[in-house]
Here is the input.
Amino acid sequence: GVLLADTGRLKEAEAAYTAARDIQKQLADEFPTRPDFRQELAQSHNNLGVLLRATGRLKEAEAAYRDALDLRKQLAAEFPTRPDFRQELAQSHNNLGVLLDATGRLKEAEAAYTAALDIRKQLAAEFPTNLDLRNELAGTCVNLALLCNQRREFKAAKQHLAEGEPHHQAALEANSRNPTYRQFYRNHLWALTEAHAGLGEQADALKAAQRVRDLGWDPPKNAYDAACGLALCIPIVAKDEQLDADKRKAAVQFYGDQAMKLLREAVEKGFKNVEHMKKDTDLDPLREREDFQKLLAELPQPAARLLDMVHDVGAGLKLSGQLNRNTGTLIYQVRLEKDVEYVIDLTSPDPKALDPYLLVSDDKNKQLAEDADSGGNQNARLVFRAPADGVYRLHATSYNQGQGDFTLTVRRKE
Here is the structure.
């Protein structure tokens, strides 16, 4: 099931998870003294919850998460000396919190996050050298801070972030290249930027965004993320009823100007993904600005080459190509059938250098789907259902204007 989910075959993954859950339930019922069977059953419920949430079936996802949570509560209570049971219980509380948060049930989400936080604080205290435990604790602090920001409880948000900061730092000092550690800390700085903005602390908000810019992991992307963080402050200050109209307008102008400054800096450092910039909802507060529209217009549009041949998928199609400075995008034409699901992969022998980026459009170049990383290891994968019989265009390009060889494959979903 995990393999199928990772490769985008979600219906098959759901069937596999369900089959595993049913078998594990039988085993847990037959051997109630075997905690490992209940642990595996809880994991299957959790896996189903993750998959169902990803496909928008939120009520079913919540039920699966709660089934996992109930089992993990039992295991943690029966075996208090097993840290893995407590870690998994905290994961269930956190997963449920994320789902409740996304559906606007903020009080319930806060309770779930707090339950996760309490367990993770205990685990981090008991195992201070376990960096994953400390990073998970910090991540829950970020979730609570973001929830507080939604409720405009900005002081409380800052308190949660202050609690998480040393745990972020400990994890990153030991392994600064861990992508999860990096993601959680960037989210921490975003939440801190928003909290400062909500409290009218413009200088501190700007400093927090500049910390994102100065992370040094990927300078163009870091500057871009910093710009997004400041852009997200615009709706916060625009709704600040404690400010009069003139001060609100001035605050909106300040964050817009600073976001644009960092966005231009990102471009100067080499950020060139125009297509992403056009669609990124984090930048929506800037879209009406003339300088934003001018920046988009001035950016070099990636070169694109439409290949004449129309390919039939048949039993499967495999094409090879190369992206370089002269071929920013190669566009392949394929004939697809209505209501058939196709798995489309764009892979590279060196995905970190190329960072494959895949788009599907109709024959008039109207975009229908896109993906950057669903194929794993920065490769791209789409599961695409053709809305009608006809010719579609597959755009093979790079997320970061990289260069290198690639393979494009198309097959019917099994």
